[in-house]
Design goal:
This protein is α/β, with parallel strands linked by helices. It is 41% helix and 15% strand. It has a 6-stranded parallel beta sheet with strand order 2-1-3-4-5-11, covered by helices on one side. α2 packs across α3 and α8 packs parallel to α9.
């Protein structure tokens, strides 16, 4: 099959489908100008003949590869796996495949991504940095086919899609205050990261709501979690449960931390939300199936994916508009954990 597939040409596919080679090319490039019945005939011919497009030849001719790169810190974090899935769906509308690079939130990996050396076979890059920060704008030189996701760490000339982290965290904390909770803890702080990181911005929102309500946030109620995985949430919650004055609510900086916290609360024989209310952030798919279902912040992940892909598509197709910064809409999703 592989030998046959490499010898089949677009002309062969066109002859079987009763169309020109140009029409076959339009179908395989996902052109909207092709009628549905024609597209179906061509795709049946492609399948029957086992045709495979020569992407190297297409790249030489058009300067396009048909793929983009998505660079994210860690697919093991539910938010990033959900984001990657949504970006793949949006990219399919433009006929793009998506190559995913995990940076591990390491500075050297993020610099390598931006250097361009690992992007030569990609039409563009959607990049969520974690380790880079203010002052790293120099790495953006020549990266016009680039969209930055997440919290603004650059003042450079690139398109950017992010969320209103501070306001969303304030809303989440205020919801707990409105439910009568007065000893509200926070899980996810990380003093080692930039002041414009998600951890720092969500901490700012938490502290703002606490201050506005005239409540206290003693240091022992703000637990550091350098990694935002299930184990980190469980360990942080166990630390809070050992305090002399146990919190009556906890705001976790992502849903994975929150689900880990739910586990530790249950293992301690306590009830959610009666003993401790829990709120997360990100509204990842698993959050509605935790026990109890998790109250959380919806950060507009679908909007982030669509805007990022559309902005990159415009750049790849020659847009010279000034760089844009888009903030998505965030909303509290109330379930049973708070």
């Amino acid at each position: 099959m592989s030998t046959r597939a490499t010898s089949v040409t677009m002309a062969d596919v066109g002859a079987l489908a009763g169309v020109t080679a140009r029409t076959v090319s339009n179908v395989l490039s996902n052109s909207p100008a092709v009628r549905p019945e024609t597209r179906d005939r061509v795709l049946r011919a492609v399948e029957k003949l086992g045709y495979r497009m020569n992407t190297s030849a297409r790249s030489l001719k058009t300067g396009r590869t048909g793929a983009i790169t998505l660079a994210i810190p860690d697919l093991g974090i539910d938010y990033f796996s959900d984001l990657a899935r949504r970006i793949m769906i949006e990219s399919e509308r433009h006929g793009w495949a998506v190559v995913i690079e995990q940076t591990g939130a390491r500075r050297d990996s993020e610099i390598a991504i931006l250097s361009g050396a690992r992007r030569q076979h990609s039409d563009g890059l959607i990049f969520q940095p974690h380790a880079l920060g203010p002052g790293d704008e120099r790495y953006l030189t020549g990266t016009d086919r680039l969209v930055i996701l997440g919290d603004r760490i650059f003042n450079g000339p690139v398109d950017h899609v992010t969320m209103t982290n501070t306001e969303a965290a304030r809303v989440a904390t205020q919801y707990l205050i409105d439910r009568g909770r007065t000893r509200i803890a926070a899980i996810g702080s990380n003093p080692r990261v930039s002041t414009v990181s998600a951890a720092s911005l969500r901490l700012q929102g938490y502290l703002l709501a606490i201050s506005e309500a005239g409540l206290e946030a003693p240091p022992e109620r703000i637990v550091v979690a350098e990694e935002w995985h299930l184990r980190d949430g469980a360990d942080a919650m166990s630390q809070l449960l050992n305090l002399r004055e146990r919190p009556d609510a906890v705001f976790c900086f992502n849903d994975t931390l929150a689900i880990g916290a739910l586990h530790s609360i249950a293992m301690a024989g306590l009830s959610v939300p009666d003993d401790i209310a829990v709120v997360g952030f990100d509204n990842v798919p698993i959050s509605q199936f935790s026990f109890p279902p998790l109250t959380t912040i919806e950060p507009g992940t679908a909007q982030i994916a669509k805007n990022a892909v559309d902005m990159l598509w415009a750049r790849v197709n020659g847009s010279t508009d000034p760089p844009r910064e888009i903030f998505t809409d965030c909303a509290l999703v109330v379930r049973h954990s708070a």
